[in-house]
């Protein structure tokens, strides 16, 4: 009698174990247990040769010991390569590189009429371009974009398909474009077209990233420090884990990323690079295997290039509740899918001196 009972109990628990394992496999969660340690994983994100020597070879004689593994090789439709050209010793302080989706004509217009307006300040030179891909299946969109570009001369487009999964290609296009055509500009903000941005606060932030916004209330620093030279700034995720659940939007298999966690990265919606960081990121990007999520890809490049992401809470990953006073120090905020609302809030902030 007791023998029979324990046998049954054994079978029941064995069944639980099997079902449990089955669930772990079906959901992908078992991958959490098999992930490799992160510590030195960056040597496997591309060729293991040290980046510094490859960069030196590229800069000196153009023939590196290892060929780049991830060059941007799409054909440009529009480059607007004149964008960052200036007269005499004029200096472009800031370039907005706006990641936009091809059909977002209205969003682009609202940005041109708000934070992307190039003549915003008479004494600070800023420039704005929009990065878009192509939609071969919708030729009427291309007709419209051709017209838009004729009017504004601010579209950067290449022949890859414009969709979420090709986001890293879009970011790479931006890096490639800026590296080739904007070698003299001071800072670049890569930003999505559903953002609110305060140009005034970006300029304030850039004067002293470490002490923004406190320094505004006390004293003004103008010395260039290391943070400004090697700036890669925005809303930083210090340690995040690959999603191994198969239904997650951010699911990634062990085959695509075998390590336990990601490098620190700035969320892709808005990140600032200094000129020197742009160069580092560009070289790192051509020696880093392409990764689907563009912000993590940039984090990988930064890790390789030995750039440390700089976090500031006034880059908002999720949109703070709007009040006039509450946006006083806001540098950039995600969550403005409605371009008219963004424009209205920007107007209000501009009128009180915050944008
Ligand atoms: C972009 O995305 C589409 C669809 O997801 C894919 O078929 C295509 O190969 C991707 N790459 C390029 C370069 O367009």
From TrEMBL:
Transmembrane feature ranges: 12-33
Molecular function terms from GO: hexosyltransferase activity; UDP-glycosyltransferase activity
Enzyme Commission code: 2.4.1.-
GO biological process: protein O-linked glycosylation
Cellular compartments per GO CC: Golgi membrane
Domain of life: Eukaryota
Subcellular location: Golgi apparatus membrane
Keyword Cell division in record: no
Leader sequence segment: none
Topology class, membrane: Single-pass type II membrane protein
Main localization (coarse): Golgi
Entries under Pfam families matching the protein: Galactosyl_T
UniProt keyword terms in alphabetical order: Glycosyltransferase, Golgi apparatus, Membrane, Signal-anchor, Transferase, Transmembrane, Transmembrane helix
Family named by the database record: Belongs to the glycosyltransferase 31 family.
UniProt-recorded name of the protein: Hexosyltransferase
Source taxonomy: Eukaryota, Metazoa, Ecdysozoa, Arthropoda, Crustacea
